Amino acid sequence: MSSGNNNNEVAMAQPPSRFEDVLHVLKRPGALAGDGFDADSGDDVMEMMQDSISLLVIGAGGLGCELLKDLALLGFQNMTVVDMDTIDVSNLNRQFLFRPADVGKPKAVVAAEKVNSRVQGCRVTPKHARVEELSLDFYRQFHVWVLGLDSVEARSYVNSVACSLLEYDEDGNVDPSSIKPMVDGGTEGFKGHARVIYPGMTPCFQCTLWLFPPQTKYPLCTLAETPRTAAHCIEYAHLIAWPRDRPDDEFDADNPEHMLWMFEQASSRAATFGIPGVTPQLTSGVVKNIIPAIASTNAIVASMCATEVLKIVTMCLRGMDNYTMYMGGYGVYTHVASYERDPQCIVCGAGIAIKTRADSTLASFRDALTSDSGGDGALPTDLRGKVTSPSISHGSSNLYMAHGPLEPLTRANLSKSLRELLFAEADMECERRTVTLMLNDKALAAPVRLRVTVE
Amino acid sequence: MIKLFSVKEKAKKESAEAAVTGKKKSSAGELRIQKDISELNLAPGFSIEFPNGTDDLLHFEITLKPTEGYYTGGTFLFGFEISDNYPHDAPKVKCLTRNVFHPNIDLEGNICLNILREDWKPVLSINSVMYGLNFLFLDPNPEDPLNKDAAKMLRDNPRQFEQVVRNGIRRGW
Ligand SMILES: [Zn+2]
C-alpha cells in the first residue's frame, strides 16, 4: 500500500487521547492531592479507572442521565445503571439521553444504549429494576455507588444495604475492603446537594436524615372541610376520594388513567369551592410530592458528584468533606458542611462485639449481657449499669421482648439455644458465625447493635 | 478520605465470595418499631394484636374500649401500618370499625388527629399515638370536623349526639 499521499499521513498522526484532560489531572502532583496519590503512575491509574473499576449508578432520570454522561466522559468504562421507571414524554426536556421514540421504554436500557453508542469503549449495563429487588451480591460487585435518586425511601434503602456490607475486625474497626463509598446527588428545583458517604467512617444517610424535612402534611379536616388551595383539593382526591370511591384499586401514580381520575376529582372539588389552579402538572406534583426539576441544577449537581467519584477512585484530590449544598434560585450559593456521624445511628453503628456459645440458651445469653462480673458475653461497663431488662431481636425476628404485649408471646424462646434460634439446620455445622442482634432497653435512647460471635 | 483502590492490587475484582448473607436486612423503620413495641405501655382500655405474628411489627391492630366519655362501652379497632421510613414518616392509622359517628373520623375510617399528620415528629412513638386516640374518644373536637354532621350535632345538641353514639354502641360498633 502506498504511503505517499497526504490523506494517509493525516490519518497516521497520533490523535490526542479522548481522556487527555483527565490524564493532565492524574499525572500532576499537587499539595491538594489525596493520600497515596502518585502522579508518576497516572497512566496506570487511568487504566485502572477504565479496566478494573466498576461503578453502580442508581437512577437514570434527570440526575442519572447527567451522571452517566459525566462519568463516561471522565473515562469510567464499566458501569451498571439501575432504574425502575419507563420514559415519559414529560422527561424529555431534561433527560437528554431520551428521544420521543423512546417514550415507554425502560430508562435504564435506553440510557445504557445511548452512552455505549456515543462513548467508545464504554460498557454500561442496564438493570430495569427497583433497588429493593437486587441482591446483596449484586451490590457487592461495584466499587463506588453513585446515587441520582429522588426519594428518601430509595436512598435510605441503598444506605442500609451499604452499611450491611460492612465487616469489622475483632476490635470493632471497619474493614476498608468492605466499604462501598457512595456519592449522592439530589435536586429540588433550583436547589441541590452533593455528598460523599464512606459507610462506617463518615455520616451515613440515616445519621443525617434530619436534612430531609418530612413532606408537608395538611390536616385531614382542612382537606375535608375547609380547602383553601389547589394542593388541598388534590390531596383530598388522593387521600379521601380515592379510598372511598375505588377501595379495591391500589393507586399507582404512574398509571395515566389513575392520574386522570385524580385530576378530574381535584378539579371538580376545586370548582365546588371556587379554588383556581388545579392542573394535571400540579396534580402529579402534589401526588408524587415532586418539585419541578430544573435541567441546569441536575447538570451542576451531577458534575459535582462525578468529580467526587474521580477523587475517590484516583485520590487525585482530597475529596469533599462531606456535604455540599447548592442554591441556584437567587444567584449562586454553595456551602460545604462537614457533618458528623450520629453515634447512636441504628444503621451504620459498628455495634458491640460479644462472644457466646451456640449452646447457650437465650436466657443465659441475656443474663451474661448484664452480668456484674463482665467477661466476653457482657456489655461494656457503661451500658451494663443502665441496661436492666433487654429485649433482643435478630433481623425481623423478635427473640424476646422484655416488656409489653409481646413478652408472653416470646417468653418460650428464653429456654431455647442460640443455635436453634439463630441458625437454620444447614448452618449448624459452621464452627463459628457472627450475627447481628439488636438490643432494646427502656434506659437506652436508641437500639444498640450487637455483633455476636457464636462458637 | 482513605485510599481504597490501588493500581497494584488492580482494585481486586470483587470475588463473589460466597458470604452467607443471612437474614434480610431490617429497615430503619423496623428497627425503631421494635424499640417502640418493646416499651409499649398499654393504657387501660387498650389491647394490641399482631395478625402476622410476632415477627411482623409493621402491621398491627389496636383495640380501644373507652372507659370514660361519650364512647364508653364501645369497641373501636384501629389498623396501624408502619413504613420502612418510620419514624421519619408517621404511622398510617385507620379506624377499622365502620360507620363510627365521631366528629374527627369519617365514614371511611380516616382520622383527623394532628400528630398523625401535620404535627408528627420522629420523637413521637406508638405510645403517643395511643394517647392521641384515647384523647380523641374522650374529648371529640367539633372544631376540626371530618364528619360535619357529627360535629354540628355535638356542638348544637350534645344530648342528641350522646343518644346517637349510645345507639351506635348498642348496635355493636
Ligand atoms: Zn449512620
TrEMBL record, chain A:
Q: Spell out the InterPro entries in the cross-references.
A: E2-binding, ThiF/MoeB/HesA, ThiF_NAD_FAD-bd, Ub_act_enz_dom_a_sf, Uba3_N, Ubiquitin-activating_enz, UBQ-activ_enz_E1_Cys_AS
Domain (E2 binding) spans 386-453
GO CC entries: cytoplasm; nucleus
Role noted for this protein: Catalytic subunit of the dimeric E1 enzyme, which activates NEDD8.
What pathway is this protein said to act in by its record? Answer: Protein modification; protein neddylation
Gene3D superfamilies, per database record: NAD(P)-binding Rossmann-like Domain (3.40.50.720), Ubiquitin activating enzymes (Uba3). Chain: B, domain 2 (1.10.10.520), Ubiquitin-like 2 activating enzyme e1b. Chain: B, domain 3 (3.10.290.20)
Nucleotide-binding recorded as keyword: yes
PANTHER family found in the cross-reference section: NEDD8-ACTIVATING ENZYME E1 CATALYTIC SUBUNIT, UBIQUITIN-ACTIVATING ENZYME E1
Might you give the EC number(s) for this enzyme?
6.2.1.64
Family, per entry:
Belongs to the ubiquitin-activating E1 family. UBA3 subfamily.
Molecular function, one GO term: NEDD8 activating enzyme activity
Q: Which SUPFAM superfamilies match?
A: Activating enzymes of the ubiquitin-like proteins
What positions constitute the catalytic site?
C221 (glycyl thioester intermediate)
Which residues does the UniProt record annotate as the domain THIF-type NAD/FAD binding fold?
42-321
Name this protein carries in UniProt: NEDD8-activating enzyme E1 catalytic subunit
Q: Which UniProt keywords apply?
A: ATP-binding, Ligase, Nucleotide-binding, Ubl conjugation pathway
According to its UniProt entry, the protein's GO biological process terms are:
protein neddylation
Q: Which reaction does it catalyse?
A: ATP + [NEDD8 protein] + [E1 NEDD8-activating enzyme]-L-cysteine = AMP + diphosphate + [E1 NEDD8-activating enzyme]-S-[NEDD8 protein]-yl-L-cysteine
Q: Which organism is it from?
A: Pycnococcus provasolii
Write down the Pfam families for this protein, in alphabetical order.
E2_bind, ThiF
From TrEMBL, chain B:
Q: Tell me the protein's name.
A: CAAX prenyl protease
Lineage of source species:
Eukaryota, Viridiplantae, Chlorophyta, Pseudoscourfieldiophyceae, Pseudoscourfieldiales
Reply yes or no: does the keyword Acyltransferase apply: no
UniProt similarity note: Belongs to the ubiquitin-conjugating enzyme family.
The positions flagged as active site in the entry are: C112
Q: Which Pfam families match?
A: UQ_con
Which GO terms are recorded in the biological process aspect for this UniProt protein? Answer: proteolysis
Its pathway, per UniProt, is: Protein modification; protein neddylation
